[in-house]
Write a structure and sequence with these properties.
The protein is an alpha/beta fold. It has two domains: 173 residues, Medium-chain alcohol dehydrogenases, catalytic domain (Quinone Oxidoreductase, Chain A, domain 1), CATH 3.90.180; 125 residues, NAD(P)-binding Rossmann-like Domain (Rossmann fold). Helices cover 28% and strands 21% of the residues. The protein has eleven helices and 16 strands. Strands 8-5-4-1-16-15 form a six-stranded mixed beta sheet. Helix 8 links the parallel strand 12 and strand 13. Helix 4 packs across helix 10. The longest helix is centred in the middle third of the chain and has 12 residues.
Length: 315
């Protein structure tokens, strides 16, 4: 293994012992966004070679359940997702020096990018799947609420999909600066200048599509207020129960859709990164050796400075 990124779910395991109903009930190795170099191959493996830099797809649908047969492996009834405490025994993850996985989980990253970039394939795949939920974005006006790693990568994916304007909101200036580097046409600090976002409520809303990446109730309420009638809200961030203004949703005939994980988007994400058609380097804010893992998790919890914090495993 070469590099692995700390995801929000990893951080929840570290800080809170889980999130929502998902709780850590036994020792777990976290980590589900990682890349490494192939050191050995099993018999008959030909699609990758020893020495290749590969990103590891953590998603392992069973392939035989009802939803897999229907072409919906994201909703596999027996999904195994590396580094997840959802099932018992837990699925062990990728924060380790050596990893043995089926070859089908390894996607070659080529020779032009770093392991840190390749390790961003998993979160970018999440974002590409979210963007696919919105249909054609060519020429559209888009709002993205939340400029953490996922919000920043959604920004890049939305621009790649042809959106004309992409406005990103957050509470932290450092996060908004990264959003600009990832392609945002405008950013708004809603803590300091909430009136700038409120201006987009004019004439029943100005945005065609909103990607809600913060999982904050005020952000979702702002999304409902600023999206145009019959507009679309794609909910990417996750949280517990919240209250919503149903009258506004009904009155504006809004469409709301959830988005989770990915399927074929993993290979596409790595292809885009490998060609730097989507440049993920601006979101990588910190790197720590695996020996500094506690320091790394503490840094990842500081949103004023951190975006994507990565662990390195090679000497």
């Amino acid at each position: 293994m070469a590099v692995a990124g700390i995801c929000g779910s990893d951080l929840h395991y570290y800080q809170d012992g889980g999130f929502g109903p998902v709780r850590v009930r036994e020792p777990i190795i976290p980590g589900h966004e990682a890349a490494g170099y192939v050191s050995a191959l099993g018999p008959g493996v030909s699609e990758i070679a020893i020495g290749d830099l590969v990103a590891v797809n953590p998603s392992q649908p069973c392939g035989t359940c009802r939803f897999c047969r229907e072409g919906l492996p994201i909703h596999c009834m027996a999904m195994r997702f590396m580094g997840s405490a959802m099932r018992l025994p837990h699925e062990q993850g990728m924060f380790r020096d050596w990893l043995v996985v089926p070859a089908r989980q390894c996607v070659s990253a080529g020779t032009l990018i770093t392991p840190g970039e390749a390790a961003c394939a998993e979160p970018l795949a999440v974002c590409l799947h979210a963007v696919s939920q919105a249909g054609d974005l060519e020429g559209k006006a888009v709002l993205i609420t939340g400029a953490g790693p996922i919000g920043a990568l959604v920004t890049a994916a939305v621009r790649h999909a042809g959106a004309a304007s992409v406005i990103v909101t957050d509470l932290a200036d450092a996060a908004l600066q990264r959003a600009l580097a990832m392609g945002a046409t405008e950013t708004i600090n809603v803590r300091d200048q909430p009136e700038r976002l409120a201006a987009f409520e004019k004439d029943k809303g100005q945005f065609d599509v909103v990607f809600e990446c913060s999982a904050a109730e005020p952000a979702l309420r702002s999304a409902i207020a600023t999206v145009r009638p019959r507009g679309l809200i794609v909910q990417v961030g996750v949280t517990g129960d919240i209250t919503l203004p149903l009258n506004a949703i009904v009155g504006k005939e809004l469409r709301m859709i959830g988005s989770q994980r990915f399927d074929g988007e993993f290979a596409l994400a790595l292809e885009l990164i490998a060609a730097r058609r989507i440049d993920v380097r601006p979101i990588i804010s910190h790197r720590f050796s695996i020996d500094e893992v506690v320091q790394a998790f503490e840094q990842a919890g500081d949103r004023t400075a951190a975006c994507k914090v990565q662990l390195t495993f090679l000497p």
